[in-house]
Design a protein that fits this description.
With 68 residues, the protein is mainly β. The chain has one helix and four strands, in the order αββββ. β2 and β3 form a beta hairpin. The chain is globular and about 35 Å long. The mean pLDDT is 83.
């Protein structure tokens, strides 16, 4: 399931600051919020155990270039 905002975005620019970054066993979608900070948007993984990793929690702020 995805939030309505992801399926029907208001503007295409809402995805302009997002990047997909490979992480161990999956992909991490992050949003550049400035000053070398990135906010985790979602994790894409087929391993249910990855969703228990607090580093991949949506809303988490990552400092610097994401290297997880």
């Amino acid at each position: 399931m995805l939030p309505e905002e992801m399926i029907f975005p208001q503007e295409e620019s809402s995805f302009a600051n997002q990047q997909t970054i490979p992480v161990e066993g999956g992909l991490l979608v992050v949003e550049d919020i400035g000053q070398s900070q990135y906010k985790v948007i979602r994790l894409i993984s087929s391993n249910p155990g990855h969703y228990l990793n607090e580093s991949y929690t949506p809303g988490r702020i990552i400092m610097g270039k994401p290297q997880l």
